[in-house]
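Intended use. Records like the one below are meant for learning the mapping from a protein sequence to its folded structure. Do not use them to infer anything beyond what is encoded.
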Amino acid sequence: MAEVTNAMIFEVLKQLQSDVTAMERSCCESRHHVNAIQSSLLSSRSVIQDIYAVLARQDARLTRIERRLDIVEPA
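Structure written out for the chain above:
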């Protein structure tokens, strides 16, 4: 059986350290991507809420117009 030396252990540990560093970098990049997606979703949500507000105002105006013209259908 081959003898395990400190140099061999050191080489394995250096490789392990570089692998962990690469994983941390990848995790950090993924975190940035997730934050960008969250930001995009929040802005989309805001736009949708604005659309609903406009639709609600239009519905209120239409209801008022129907009442003035007396064209409201019975419920």
